[in-house]
Amino acid sequence: MPAVRGWAGRTGFALLAAGVLLFGYEAGFVLMEVRLDLFVAVLAIGLLQAEFAVLSFAAFILSSAAVFAGWSARSCRYDPLHDAGTVTAIVPVYRDAAVLDRSVRSLRNSNYQDLDILVVCEPDDAPTIERAKELASLDGVDYLINTEKPGSKAGAINYAVSRTDGEYVAIHDADELVHEGFLSLAVAKLQDADVVQGRTVPEPDGFMESLAYYESVLLSYVSRRILYVFTDFKMAASRAVVMRREALESVGGYDEEMLTEDFFFAYQCYRNRLDVRELLDAPSRIDAAHNITDWWGQRKRWMTGYAQVLHRLIATIRPVTDYRNLFSVAIGASTVVGSLLMLTILSKFAVLVVAGSGALFVAPMAAITGVTLAIHWHDYRRGLVSAPTYVWLLVPLLLPIYSLSAIKAVFEYVFSWSGEWYRVSKKA
Fold it and tell me: Which of 13, 54, 224, 311 is most buried (most C-beta within 10 Å)?
């Protein structure tokens, strides 16, 4: 039976991927007319759908990057607060003994004064518990064993929150190098907000690590700008995030049934009208996936979680009570469907080649590579990451590969997923 299930899964994935490619190819030949009102005359331009799609995509990337640059420039306008109430920094861990020093020691270097650091361990993880005990000998550090809600990051966070009483709650991953000024700036922003989400920067210290960094720049930050401009939705995750305790409690904490508890938490905040702000200054550095297996497995887990979140959003929709219930479903659907359709980039390229307009494909490729290189150079000048290498030239390949992981994840979620999830390896 497992062999049959695996064969069926692979066959279904291949058929769905081929279907997406065929759809993009057939749609690409549709002739469209774009009309421009020039006040004195109307200019009508005939374009193939593929030509319109690649030019629109290039414009979308460039405009999103411009918004990201503008928000980054104004992100640090808050004067930091170094002592405005107790911040409880929660670090949920599982098999993280080798990297736990990163978060704990960087948090201890924070310039925020009233800070308690709490490492939350799983009961079956003896090596990490032992390391947490050693770190608990440092001033301001303690550890807790998650005996009440073991088995999930969400459960560990919720349990830790129930055992503490600090005015603010910060959540960080074990491998996260937290900027010394992040908490002070986040607390300053929280004086007129409910949740503050920081930026995380994968360290591009190898080939796969560099691709993970570029993916973070392009898909996690740049591509969301237009969504943020036209809706009140903003991402609120379960790392590099600081919030008021009452804000977390108002949404019932993190959902322990969700594979991507952070993605669902963002929608809980949106539906409950919590004021979520971004803090792009003072980013945290995180450990990136180190090989293609880890990269693929982690992305497939994320996309499975996104499909699960969309399923939950649809199941709990209440359209007559609040428009945000409808909007949340639309946003969640656009995330999943958009990830699936990124594979059609290859279809559009094929259409343009057949139509003799292959040179048009330079526009989106130049936009993608140019934007990611510019942000990498900016991060390098700030001392966050190493200098760019040749890997930035391969950034366009990320989109169809990421789309393939999305197609496989969504197909498996609908037909064969049984709750399993992938864990990446981490290094000290």
Answer: 54
